[in-house]
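Single Protein Entry

Contents — chain, fold
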Amino acid sequence: MRNAHDIPTTIVTGFLGAGKTTAINHLLTEKPAGEHWALLVNEFGKVGVDAALIGPVAGVSIREIAGGCLCCTAGLAFEVALNRLIGDTSPDRILIEPTGIGHPLKIISTLTGSYYHNVLDLRATISLVDARKLGDPRYTEHPAFQDQLNLSDVLVGNKADCYSDNDRSAFMELLNGFIPQKVAYAMISFGRIDSSLLDLPRDQSRMAGFPDAHPVSELPLFLHSAKNVPEGKTDPVSVDIWAMHEGSGGGYFSGSWLMGSGYCFDSNALSALISSFPYSRIKGIVQCNDGWRKINGSDGIVEFLVTEPQGSSRLEIINSSPMPCREIERELKKVLR
């Protein structure tokens, strides 16, 4: 581990649909020349997608932990991934992105504990929120949502280009209700978060309202390393593999698919099918007849964008109610080429 000085470290939280991935992407583009940054991404589903959605970025090492929340899984998986990231890359700065329904308290406790005392300098925790959701009890009554806000030092209203006057008022009302007050706040569009926020101090007096919201789980997490593949790209898998995983936690349900390079989808048919699925959040990297596509959707709006070839196709769907994953899988196989 690095001994010269503590590594500036920032946790970036945001409930489902807050636009964390876009904001992280923007922050990475603000990296000063000559610095090497590290990003540790946590995924709720069991196949890693976020690293591919974010990377590759020159001068940035990305590691991904899939299969649950960092906050409710044995801390060993988190520490192993973080230690490996620090030891392998000697970063000048670390960003940590928990899953959207993750509770940040245990992550903060780990990063500020004795083991990392002389290694990490935990700065202000940044929480993104979509102010249009502030009247939706599925968000406002969720313990993880509330404590992402309670424990944040910086509150950022993302997707402000879509806000009404009422949305802006709701954001300011939320902001003004916190004691202690936030260190800073912003309303931004397209994830264009100011990188100077990364150097703001952390307020140690902030308290969680629901410290026991996520029980410890014995389910294993899956660490996706960038070894042997370009950083940010998914690990290569068997050409003919097709694997589905289902999961649940924190009141949400997930269906995740890992598909080898032997599977190729009809682009137009897949786009139409994806839009018909039930989801709170959907994301993926898939091989199509006209090239690879990046899928990124929430709130009924899905981006289906051209991207670089990957080692395998991956799709993850998260929903607030149980999903017919077997039926979804049958429909996916119908649009294969």
Remarks:
- The radius of gyration is 19 Å.
- The longest strand covers residues 7-14.
- The chain has two domains: 7-199, 238-334.
